[in-house]
Structure formats: structure tokens, C-alpha cells
# Entry
Amino acid sequence: MSGSKLNVMLMGVVLFVGGGLLWFALASGPPSDDSPATISTPQAPQGIGVDLSRRDLDDPRAMGKVDAPVVLIEYADFRCPFCGVFARDTEPELKKYVEDGTLRIEFRDLAIFGEQSTRAAAASRAAGQQGKFWEFHSAVYADAPERGHANLTDSALVVYATKIGVKDMVQFKKDMNSTKVATDVQSDAEEAYGIGASSTPLFLVNDEPILGAQPASVFIEKIERLAAAS
# Structure
């Protein structure tokens, strides 16, 4: 299915949700310092009609069984306050589904808040190459502000890597600055843009979208319904 068709399908889902095009325009802009850390919007059950899960056994940015019946894909920015809310408040409530084999979580980079976001995405991948992606993810989001954007300079990213126990810092810095990692970060973004994403976080539960840092109950409803139907 082409990216343009997926874009139209995702837009259709958003329009159905009830806020219409105006809501989409408002939700898609970067959050201001006064923005609340949660978007509360009803979710439509329609899917985008394509499975974007990778189910790569060696993916350091995934957790859960490769053959889990439900895959949650998260498109996120390490400087996004809403992504921090999900990581701190919602994701822990979903871990039980990962542990019992129902759910797999796959992280994707959608670095939209400038060069620091892109650098943070690269640093997270460099940590992942030493088996520390999720530790890096948790450490950065634990410190994320509820409003505005974290100041993730290169030196701050190195501090996080050191803090979580990345052993080979020379290799970490090399990976963080590699052309391949930069290309991979961009590839994730292009995948997200291909389905019409323009804000973070965006989630796909199998092929059903969730926009914004919704309450855990929104995710749980989809996970349990899709698992029962599998």
C-alpha cells in the first residue's frame, strides 16, 4: 500500500474521531510550555489497513515475544513531554501483557523537535547497540518535563549513557555519530510520515491508531479486544 493511501486512511480515522480536521490541526502542533501533558480524545476502532510491525528477534528497541498476538508500535520523540507521560505513567501498566506473551512493544523514532531530538534518537540507538536501549529510554523520560522540551545536549546524552551503565563509551560516541544510525533515525520518521503522522506520540496497536498520551484504559481495551480476536 502506498504512503499516500495510508496517509488518507489515517486522516479518515482522525476525522471520524469527532474533533474533525480542526482537532487534528490542533493536536498536530508542537506542545507549548503551557500545554497539558495528556490529550483526551475518543478513539475510533478503524485500522489503517497495514501491519507495520517488524517482529525482529534481534531488535534492541522491542520488548515481548516476536509472535505476540498484539504489537504496539510507538512513534516518539525523546524531547516530547507527552511521550514522557506515556513512558512514566502508561507503559508500566502494559508490562503485564508483555510478560504474559500477549503484547510486543516496538519503539520508532519520530524526532520532530529539532536537532537535539535527532541526536537523542541517535544516542538511544547507540545505547541499544550495547543492550541498553530501554534503560536509556527510561532514564531520559524519567527526567522529562511535563511541559516544554528537555534540554538534551550531546553532553547530557553522554551523561545518561554513563548513568545507565553503557560500558564502551568510545563505541557509544562512535555509534551515536555514525551515518548509518542517522539514516535509520530518518527511516523511522519517513515510515511515520507515510501514515500521516505529524505529532508525537502516535501509537499503532496492530493497525489501530491511538493519538496522544491517552489513559492506560484506552490501550488496554484495544490490547484485550485484539488479543481475544486473534
